[in-house]
Every structure is written in C-alpha cells, then in structure tokens.
C-alpha cells in the first residue's frame, strides 16, 4: 500500500481557527517485510525474524515475519524497547510513550502502537487473538487508502472520540481485564469445590490441590498488581500521559490536557482493583479454611493423646494387679494358702484395687485439667 509524502494537515491557530496547510510529511513507513540487507562481501545477512500482525486504523490486517531492525525503522524506537518480547519482561506490565509510538506490554499482549497502526508481536497467543477480534469489531475494514484519509480522520476522531492509539489501549485493557475475570472465576469455582472436600476429609490429594491453588492465586495476584501499579504510575505523571497522545502530535494540536486518558485509566484502575480484591478475599478464605483444618487436626491429635493416656493408665492398674498376683504365686509358705475359698476373694480384691487406682488417677488428671 503506498503512502503519499504530502498530506493535508489540520491544526488550530492560537485564536482557535482551523488552518488547512499542505506540509511535507515524514517519509513513508518502512515496508513491513523489508530488511535482510547485505554484508560487505555481497552475502545476505541472516537476521532473526519475529512473527507479528499489522492492524491499521482502516481495519486492514497483515501477518508476516520481520527482523528487529525493520521494526525499529518503521516505528522509530530504540532496540531496548523490543526487549518486551524477551524473558526478562515476559511477566512484567509496562506502557511506555515514545515520540511516534506506544510500547504496550500487558500480560501476553505485546504491541507497538502508532497513530495509524498497531504491530502485534506473537499474534498466535490467545490474548492477542482476542485483542485482534476486538479491534476488528471496533475498526471494520474499509477499502480506502490510509494515507489520504489519515489526517481528516485523525482530526475528526480527535474531536469526537478517543484517538486511535487510545482505542487500541482500551481494547488491550479490556482483553486483559476479561482474562483476569475469567481466571478468577475459574479458580474460585475450583477452590470452593476442593475446600469443601478438604473440610469433610483431609487427604494428601486434597492438600496437594489446595497448595497448587494457592500458588495460582499468588501468581495471578502478582500479575494483577503489576497492571495496577503501571496504571497508577501513569496517573501520577501527567507528562507521561501526554507522551501517549500520538494523534495530537501528528495533527500538531496545542492542547495539553490529559482528561480523556485520565478517565480511561481510572476506569480500568477501578476494575483491576476490584479483581485484586476478589483474589485477596478468596486467598483469605483459603487461609481460613487451612486454619480450620489445622484446628480439626490438632483436636484429633489431642483426643488420640488422651486415649493413649487412658490406655497407659489402664496398663498401670493391670500391672499393679499383676504384681499382687505374682507375689502370691511365689513358692513361699503362707498360712493363707490353706484357707478354703481364699482365691476368689483375692481375685475380687485385686480387681477392685485396679478399678480404684484407675478412678483415682483419672480423677486427679481431671482435677489438674489435664483432660
């Protein structure tokens, strides 16, 4: 698609009048599949290409692969901004404003947004596919050359609705918040079922599932917190928010307010805080359930100890009776042996003695509040 180098630019004078000038625009963007280059000896350089999808404000899409240098030339960003695709920034959340683009890194959504297009890295990820569907609904495809209509649409869109870059940013927040809500609902359903089973019966399998759930909740809380911190960071600095107004820079508008972006970010900050509060509430419920299970386990352990103590007492009383019987079983002449029926009285006496000893020790333990 060709982009003319001369476009009609609308901007306002100091008195508010709209002026229509024909100015020389920057050179057309580097083609999305450009690159490759050659070395000094004429051999072609091998550059590592990355998959991406280009989505324009007119709804046109293009899936291709290109190297980092091509992307850097096309959107005018330094090489360090492409680190969002690396492992170091894979779990972070950042929204960075540059002169001609916005670097978006929200969960699995990694994109470079300009005033008239968005480059989506790793376009086959589920969250990115959801964002693409959202953008297609928001920007239906039109067979209109983008360069000709760009300035008029930018000025009209700037006055009537959010600029293109903010609509993309809003869609990205919507997809991420929907993903968070879906994960919270899934984890909450699973957690309630497992915790109910754990209360009824403590098993190794249930404990393992609960531990896995706690890890998932912890990871999700961390992800939500990172998005929340990034939104708060932008809201705290009007200068950073002003850097995100790409359309305003293109049409050379002198407005300096950031009210539209401020309202957009505050709306999603409230939604993210609500999600975080749900996660903390559910995590607290898991902790409370674990405490309840621990109390039940301690109660069972205490009852087992009491039962063991009673068995030990019974063994002591029986041992005392055995001692008496053993003494009488020795081969020592005693006149009592010649008495008729004395054996029955002896057995009965030993039995009564064992019961009395058991009751005395049991009563003393109760008086000392050992039971």
From TrEMBL:
Keywords: Ion transport, Magnesium, Membrane, Transmembrane, Transmembrane helix, Transport. The keyword Transmembrane helix applies. Belongs to the CorA metal ion transporter (MIT) (TC 1.A.35.5) family. The chain crosses the membrane at residues 304-330, 342-362. The lineage of its organism: Eukaryota, Viridiplantae, Streptophyta, Embryophyta, Tracheophyta. Residues 26-47 are annotated as: Disordered. It is a multi-pass membrane protein. It is found in: Membrane. The keyword Transmembrane helix applies. Magnesium transporter that may mediate the influx of magnesium. It comes from the Eukaryota. Pfam families: MRS2-like. This is Magnesium transporter.
């Amino acid at each position: 698609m060709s982009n003319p180098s001369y476009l009609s630019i609308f901007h306002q004078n100091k008195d508010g009048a709209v002026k229509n000038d024909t100015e020389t625009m920057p050179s057309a963007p580097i083609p999305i599949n450009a690159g490759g280059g050659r070395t000094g000896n004429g051999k072609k350089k091998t550059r590592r290409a990355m998959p991406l999808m280009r989505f324009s404000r007119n709804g046109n899409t293009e899936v291709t692969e290109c190297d980092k240098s091509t992307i850097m030339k096309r959107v005018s960003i330094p090489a360090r901004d492409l680190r969002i695709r690396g492992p170091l920034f894979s779990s972070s959340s950042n929204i960075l404003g540059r002169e001609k683009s916005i670097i978006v890194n929200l969960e699995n959504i990694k994109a470079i947004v300009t005033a008239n297009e968005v480059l989506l890295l790793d376009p086959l990820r589920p969250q990115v596919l959801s964002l693409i569907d959202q953008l297609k609904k928001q920007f239906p495809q039109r067979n209109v050359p983008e360069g000709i209509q760009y300035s008029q649409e930018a000025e009209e869109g700037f006055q009537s609705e959010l600029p293109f870059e903010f609509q993309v940013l809003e869609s990205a927040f919507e997809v991420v918040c929907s993903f968070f809500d879906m994960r919270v609902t899934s984890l909450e359903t699973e957690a309630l079922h497992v915790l109910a089973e754990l209360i009824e019966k403590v098993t190794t399998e249930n404990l393992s599932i609960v531990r896995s759930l706690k890890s998932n909740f912890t990871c999700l809380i961390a992800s939500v917190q990172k998005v929340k911190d990034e939104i708060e960071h932008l809201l705290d600095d009007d200068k950073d928010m002003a850097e995100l107004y790409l359309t305003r820079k293109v049409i050379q508008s002198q407005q300096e307010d950031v009210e539209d972006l401020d309202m957009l970010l505050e709306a999603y900050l409230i939604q993210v805080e609500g999600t975080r509060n749900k996660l903390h509430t559910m995590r607290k419920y898991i902790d409370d359930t674990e405490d309840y299970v621990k109390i039940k386990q301690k109660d069972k352990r205490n009852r087992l100890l009491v039962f063991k103590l009673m068995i030990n007492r019974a063994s002591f009383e029986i041992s005392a009776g055995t001692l008496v019987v053993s003494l009488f079983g020795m081969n020592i002449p005693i006149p009592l042996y010649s008495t008729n029926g004395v054996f029955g009285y002896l057995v009965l006496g030993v039995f009564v003695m064992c019961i009395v000893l058991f009751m005395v020790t049991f009563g003393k333990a109760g008086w000392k509040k050992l039971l």
